[in-house]
Amino acid sequence: MTAFSTLHYEFCIQNITCHRSEFRVGLTRVSGLLFGGDYNPEQWPERVWEEDVRLMAEAGVNMATVAVFSWSRLEPRPGEYDFGWLDRVLDLLHEHGVAADLATATATPPPWLVRDHPEVLPVDAAGTRLEFGSRQSYCPSSPVFRDAAVRLVRAMAARYGRHPALALWHIGNEYADHVLECFCAESARHFRTWLESRHGTVDGLNAAWGTSCWGQHYTAFDQVEPPRKAPGPVNPAQVLDWRRFCSDALLECFELERAVLREATPDVPVTTNFMSILHGLDYWKWAAAEDVVSDDAYPDPADPESHVAVALSYDLMRSLKRRPWILLEQAASAVSWREVNAPKPPGMMRLHSLQALAHGADGAMFFQWRQARYGPEKFHSALLPHGGTAARGWRDTLRLGADLRRLAEIAGTGTRADVALLLDWDSWWGLEAPESMPSDRLRLKDLLLSWYRPLHARGVAVDLVPAGRDLSGYRVVIVPNLYLCTPEQAGRLAAFDGHLVVGPFSGVVDAADQVHDGGAPGPLRELLGLTVDEFWPLPDGRVQRVRPVTGAVTGARADAAAVPARTWAEWLRVEDAEVLARYEGGDLDGQPAITRRGRATYLSCLLDDVTPVLSEVLAAAGVRPVADVPEGVEATRRGPYLFLLNHATTPARMDLAEPGTDLLTGRELRGRIEIPARDAVVLRTGAGPTEGER
Ligand SMILES: [Zn+2]
């Protein structure tokens, strides 16, 4: 046991705040940043466990996620439990200063459950039952599954609620990863109950779903089915309600387990590991139901831009509860589920871990601790590779553990952002409904990234916000798209007193996916001062130029370059707004493309590069970057700590605006600095007390 782990024999996760005062059970407390990973000791003989905990202590591991897929080992026969092995694992972890993020093990129902009750197996949209042999083999609506899961969780809570290693409950695992939706008869029944509570009467449902179209008028709820595979396009309002229902049905499973744990161990926080920006689950709603947000993130090492998209998801995780969160899973090097699984070159695993911290995480954990020898993830990398302590990966593990100890003081600090990006799941589900839209090329993640990429490149801090939230305090709010927009949500945007930017195809439909009176932008019409006369989606490969109107925008000169737009354009009827740019050439030649009324800017197209518009809005709003950074360097701030991450494969040179101490090296830095390729600086500056988040 190292000096470090001895010192941390009693530990606390005091800085990851949840609505309870702190993570704490009995004597078990974890301080500083969390480091460790999924630990699956049941895949190894017990003699290996001793080596595991010894090496965990050597690496500075202070938390392990255990029992995620252990249901069949914990309850080998119905109601018959075998906790002995897990008792020994938790005792060993505790003796070596490692806290447990203890999973409820319900992500993988055991064989006996699906054999005794085959109805728990999920069914796809074409009616095919998905068999046992993988994971998540359950229907979220199945009462048999739910009862069995709750019974196991009760037994787990009774057995381990007082165990000194227990620091965090990990409910389920990656909800909706494999089974977001189930189309079985039980799910259909559950869907009808959900619809009845949403719409009240069958006439209410008929009105909301517009069943007068294509002769779908229902006379009883029991005629309603999930949107199974049908001869042609399925009613998009039915699909939208189905998306809402599927997110809610899985959330009910989570909440059933949470209720058991809250009663048994009210002091132990609960989480479930999210999957970055996932289409299937409304994470605003889910985050409100848990104590701590945690995320699994797997940026592709082969994609030189993957650190940008993952930064966006990290900013979402921080924004969900406006608190520090935990990166619960990432890969030490390669994963095993892409067609080609690139490893992380030297430095990238450390840099990606620091990146999560830079965006508000209070821990950098991994899947998994020891690389498996069998199963679908045997080629998925781990903190302790197949090659053991002689492998390159193990040196990276030791280095990261040491770095996280040096960075312990950042735990609990918050981020302040002047810019918010709006992300709303209802609208996303409506936008990406299959087979009924003007273009299926308009994808929300692309729209989000088109704004996030230049903000990230220039080091501007960004929060994410849901539709309908009070936006006061931000200087700029960007709505990449809000296809579904209610009058209440429009009212929030109209009440915002900063600079608002609204992207195309917004304000089109109401909460029931019905087009607003008079068409788009519906309840945003007065705010934006225009009507969309006609949507003008562009065929693949077609480029529509957009040229700024001279003098309309700050810096727009007579020779201002035209910017290409692709995928989408609109024919606007401007009623009360200034035209900032017009379409040039093609069918839309001379028509308004970008407009502004007061502080509200509207873009009717998808520009290849929004930088000219963004720069002008940021300047007008007085938004400053966290730091002036060269290309390839990411800058974020947490309280007084400035993170500078060089994602490039060459060294970066930049000037520091303020001196400080690099926590990673202990060196005092000022003026011109050089950051080696794939390396980072975490500077403690003199910038006043920690600023909390909004
Ligand atoms: Zn089902």
List the helices and strands and how they pair.
Layout (H helix, E strand, L loop, with lengths): L2 H5 L26 E6 L6 H14 L3 E4 L4 H4 L9 H12 L3 E5 L7 H6 L26 H18 L5 E5 L14 H15 L2 H8 L26 H29 L5 E2 L1 E2 L8 H6 L5 E3 L9 H16 L3 E5 L18 H11 L2 E6 L25 H15 L12 E4 L2 H7 L12 H14 L4 E4 L10 E4 L7 H9 L3 E4 L22 H4 L1 E6 L8 E5 L14 E4 L3 E5 L3 E7 L7 E6 L2 E4 L2 E2 L3 H11 L11 E6 L2 E6 L5 E4 L4 E3 L5 E2 L2 E4 L3 E6 L10
Parallel strand pairs: 1-2, 1-9, 2-3, 3-4, 4-5, 6-7, 7-8, 8-9, 10-11, 10-12, 12-13, 13-20
Antiparallel strand pairs: 14-17, 15-16, 15-18, 16-21, 18-19, 19-20, 22-23, 23-28, 24-27, 25-26, 25-28
The structure holds zinc ion.
Zinc ion binds next to helix 7.
Describe this entry's structure for a reader:
There is one protein chain. With 694 residues, this protein is of the alpha/beta class. Helices cover 29% and strands 18% of the residues. The strands form 5 sheets. A 10-stranded mixed beta sheet has the order 11-10-12-13-20-19-18-15-16-21. It has a 9-stranded parallel beta sheet with strand order 5-4-3-2-1-9-8-7-6. A 5-stranded antiparallel beta sheet has the order 22-23-28-25-26, covered by helices on one side. Helix 7 (185-199) packs across helix 8 and helix 7 packs across helix 9. 50% of the residues are buried. Residues 1-28 and 689-694 have low confidence and may be disordered. The structure holds zinc ion.
